[in-house]
Structure formats: C-alpha cells, structure tokens
Amino acid sequence: MTLSGVVASGRGEGAFFTRTEWARRQLIDLFAIDPYPGTLNVILRDRAARSAWRQVKAAKGQILEPPDAGWCNARCYKVTVSGAVRGAVVLPEVAGYPADQIEIVAAIGIRERLGLADGDRVTLEIEV
Fold first, then answer.
1. Mean of per-residue pLDDT scores for the chain
2. Considering its fold, how many domains does the chain have in total?
3. DSSP 69
4. Residue 25 sits in which domain range?
5. Mean pLDDT along residues 65-92
6. What is the CATH classification number for the domain harbouring 102?
7. pLDDT at residue 102 tops 80
C-alpha cells in the first residue's frame, strides 16, 4: 500500500519508547531493526492517504506485546520511506491515538538520512 504525508515533530515519546529493552528486543526479533532513538512522525493530509491508512490498519500486522500493563500493545507493519529507508510503522493501540498520524522506527535517523524537515512530503510503501 502506497501513501504519502508530511513530516511533523512529535512529542518526544518515541525516543523513550525505542530505548525500552522490551520494545527494542521485539523490533530486532520481528523486523531486524535495532531502533534509532526516536520515530519519524508523518501526518496524512489528504483523503486518499487517510483512506489507504484505514485499509492498512484493518490488516493484523505484527504485535509488540509489553511486559506489563503500564504499556499498550502496538501493531507494526514493514515500511519503506521515500524508496530509501526500511523500517517499521508502529501503531500504538490506545484510545484517542490520532487517526492521521503514522510513526516509523528504523535503524537509522530517517530525518537525517533523507534530509527531512517538518512539512516535507514523504512516500510510504507499507507491506500488509
């Protein structure tokens, strides 16, 4: 599934999440990604992208299971960002998570590798 959106700054929670041992271990086991600290946040601005994202979310994906109830489960999908960086979409299973936001982890800093800034458009190829 191909869709596009714009890069946006997050709240910094992705960096904390990617440094937790349980999440790191599962991302390595499931996707062979030793995650860079942080996530790339992509906001879906147009109707077609949001529709495609709903189709992706309907697919099961791989589940990240936390060690205790203090964390939420997350579904993950393989992704390639702008044809250049492989990673995983991480979709937290929490009420109220923004329907138009996608968070991506990778083994490298995606912003730095692709020279991205807030507002830049990226293309995502998500495997479902």
1. 91
2. 1
3. T
4. 2-126
5. 89
6. 2.40.30.30
7. yes
Cα pseudo-dihedral 23, 66, 53, 19, rounded to 10: -20
Q: Transcribe the chain into DSSP letters.
A: -EEEEEEE---SHHHHHHHSHHHHHHHHHHHS----SS-EEEE--SHHHHHHHHHHHHS--EEE--SSTTS--EEEEEEEETTTEEEEEEEE--TT--TTEEEEEESS-HHHHHT--TT-EEEEEE--
Q: How far is CA 8 from CA 2, 18, 40, 48, 78, in A?
A: 19, 18, 8, 19, 20
Supply the pTM of this predicted model. Answer: 0.91
Q: How many residues does the chain have?
A: 128
Structure tokens at 77: 């999908």
